[in-house]
Structure formats: C-alpha cells, structure tokens
C-alpha cells in the first residue's frame, strides 16, 4: 500500500507544481481556468497566447506587452499575499518536523512554503540578515524564484515586493529608486542624466537564463549523492501537482528518480501525466486529488501515534505492577476507548476524488497508469475495482 509506504519512509524528496496551490486560491497556469487562459481572454490583442506573457523573448518587445506583464504580476502578488498554506504545504512541513524531509523543490513562486514554516533558500536575502538560510540548511528550494522581491532590469538592485497595493508600496513596473538617485546626483554635478530601469519580479521567465542556476545545480547534486549513498528502499521521491512540461523540472525528477534503484518515485496529479517516456523512472502514478492523498498519509501517522501512546501506557502499567507487587493496570474502560480510537483512524474512508493505480511490467518493475489502461479500468471497474487508497 503506497500510503503506508510513504508514511514509513526514512527520507523523502518532494517536487511540487502549481497544482498544490489551487485550493489556496492561486490559479495554476495550464488548466482551462488557469492564468494562460485568463490572460488570453483579457488581452488577446496584445499576446497571441497567454504563455507569451511569461516569455522573456516576447513580453519585453513592446511597452504595451510589458505593462500588461507588470499589471498581472502585481495582481498575482496580491493573491499570493492573501493565500494561506494548504494541505500539501502542511504535509511537507510535517515531513520536516518528523526528520523525513531531505529537500522540497517547488516550481511555485507564491511563497507559501515559507508561510508553512519551512526554511526556504532565498539567494536575494543578504547573508548577514537574520532571515538568511544557507542552501545546506534549506528545507525548500524555489526553482523559478519568488514573488517576494523586485529587481531593476538595468542596475539589478533588489527591493521587497510590497504585499499591499497603494501608498508608497513598490509594484512591478515602478521606476528603480537607485537609478533615479544616481541620475539626480549626476544632474546636481552638472552632468547628463542617466536612464532609469523598471522593476520586475525576481522570477524566471521562459527563454531566459536562470541567474542562480549554478547554486541550484549544486543543491541538486548534493541531494543526488545523498540518495546514492544509502541505496535503501525507504527513500521516496514524491512529485505533486505538476504536468512536468518544464524541461528543467523534468530533468530534475529524472535525476532524483534514477539516483538509487531501490528508491520509489510516486507522481500524484489530477490528470494522467506519465507515458512511455517515464517507463523505468516513475514507479507509481496516482490520478486524483493531492490534498486527499496527503490527508490519508497524515491519518496513518495519527494512527501510529495513538498506537504508540497506547503501547507506552500498557508497558508503564505493567512496570508499575511488577515494581509494586500490586495490580496497577490501566482501567479496562480506558484501554477499550483507546483501542476504539485507533480502529476508527485506520478505517479510512474513500477519497473525495477517485484515485487509480495500474500495474504494468517495466524496467525496475515500474507501475504506470496511462490513458488506455484507465479506460480499461473503467470497463472492468464493476468486476475488479482498484483503488490506490486500499
């Protein structure tokens, strides 16, 4: 059972996408109600596709497209500021609290990992800042930057991205204050003024180099060596809420999944993702709600905690009886109530959204759920129902 295998893992690496933040009020990118579709519907005369607004080779070609980009990014920043961590974010935090989390890699730019209490690696924070987290101590690594900073496209000065609109708050598209100050100093000295750059979010767009690619490569190499060193079946790679369309994230998952042949790679998404190209890389694909799946794992943890407490109580009572020579057992009424509580937690209800797993022969005994097998499953459901939750 996959849920119990993850609950009993020793080390876990998590790779997340926009799907884990949808229930937090932040839209994803590629769905029918995602950002790409919203942008295309609102600005069809400016960009031919919604994706173009996040393409560095397209968005900065014209001032009109750049202004639309600044407007949407400021709006997205306010959405991120209002959002609160969801079930998956809390699940990753609990992995860290239990000492099971090796690292969490996220494609998201919403900053909800920090709100959940994870130590997030942020290269834009100065090293002498009390909030600075080195990459060795970081529990979460944002692969595409965050919305917490703005930087000047001309002088690269960094500023905090204000969470509240209005007043003196900085927003995407504002003029860089450092550039303006240098220009005013030059004018006071009787020299010609200099151009001022505009501020943009510290996120990585399509078709532009990652400014911290070497640092991220160092972190990934470190974690890959850590997975290779032990070669144990208790290592789990979890991929949540992503279609793996971005080449960099796709390569990351392949590198982590193939680091150790004994590790298990599980992908959980609302829609099927894995095809033939993932044979021998992804062990299990779960089609269903990520929040529900993580909730089931937390139920197993709660059940294990109650069983541990009940065992400790009975052992303590036995020790008292042996030491005192008198009957000092725990009242039967109390024990029966504890046993009943454990049973109610282990009797797991079905998921709100049906989750399907399909077993196929592949290299390393991989199990992949594909569209054809899902159709076959629906035909045979009444004869032999399968569920990832049992």
From TrEMBL:
Boundaries of every Deacetylase sirtuin-type domain copy: 1-311
Keywords annotated in UniProt: Lyase, Metal-binding, NAD, Transferase, Zinc
A Pfam family hit: SIR2
GO molecular function, one term: histone deacetylase activity, NAD-dependent
Entry's EC annotation: 4.4.1.36
GO cellular component, one term: nucleus
The keyword Lyase appears for this protein: yes
Bias-annotated ranges (Polar residues): 377-390
Class of enzymatic activity (EC top level): lyase
Keyword Metal-binding set for record: yes
Annotated catalytic residues: 144
Region of interest: Disordered: 371-390
Binding site for Zn(2+): 152, 155, 176, 179
UniProt similarity note: Belongs to the sirtuin family. Class I subfamily.
Protein name: NAD-dependent deacetylase hst3
């Amino acid at each position: 059972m996959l849920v119990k295998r993850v609950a009993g893992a020793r080390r876990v690496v998590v790779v997340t996408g926009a799907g884990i933040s949808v229930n937090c009020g932040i839209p994803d990118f590629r769905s029918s109600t995602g950002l790409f579709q919203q942008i295309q519907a609102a600005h069809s005369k400016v960009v031919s596709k919604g994706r173009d607004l996040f393409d560095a080779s397209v968005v900065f070609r014209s001032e009109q497209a750049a202004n639309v980009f600044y407007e949407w990014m400021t709006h997205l920043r306010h959405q991120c500021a209002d959002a609160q961590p969801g079930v998956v974010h809390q699940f990753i935090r609990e992995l860290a609290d239990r000492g099971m989390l090796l690292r969490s890699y996220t494609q998201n730019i919403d900053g909800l990992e920090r709100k959940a209490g994870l130590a997030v690696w942020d290269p834009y924070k100065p090293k002498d800042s009390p909030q600075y987290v080195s990459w060795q101590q970081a529990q979460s690594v944002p692969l595409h930057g965050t919305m917490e900073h703005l930087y000047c496209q001309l002088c690269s000065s960094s500023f905090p991205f204000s969470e509240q609109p209005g007043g003196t708050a900085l927003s995407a598209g504002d003029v860089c204050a450092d550039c303006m100050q240098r220009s005013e100093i030059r004018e006071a000295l009787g020299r010609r003024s200099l151009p001022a750059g505009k501020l943009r979010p510290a996120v990585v767009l399509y078709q532009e180099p990652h400014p911290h690619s070497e640092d991220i490569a160092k972190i990934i190499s470190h974690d890959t060596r850590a997975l290779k060193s032990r070669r144990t079946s208790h290592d789990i790679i979890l991929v949540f809420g992503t279609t793996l369309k971005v080449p960099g994230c796709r390569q990351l998952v392949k590198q982590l999944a193939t680091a150790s042949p004994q590790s298990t790679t599980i992908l959980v998404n609302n829609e099927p993702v894995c095809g033939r190209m993932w044979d021998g890389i992804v062990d299990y694909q779960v089609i269903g709600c990520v929040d529900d799946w993580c909730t089931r794992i937390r139920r197993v943890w709660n059940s294990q905690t109650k069983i541990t407490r009940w065992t400790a109580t009975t052992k303590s009572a036995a020790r008292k009886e042996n030491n005192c020579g008198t009957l000092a057992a725990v009242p039967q009424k109390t024990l029966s109530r504890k046993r009943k509580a454990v049973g109610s937690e282990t009797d797991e209800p079905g998921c709100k959204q049906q989750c399907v797993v399909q077993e196929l022969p592949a290299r390393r005994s991989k199990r992949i759920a594909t569209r054809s097998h899902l159709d076959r499953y629906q035909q045979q459901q009444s004869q032999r129902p399968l569920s990832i939750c049992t």
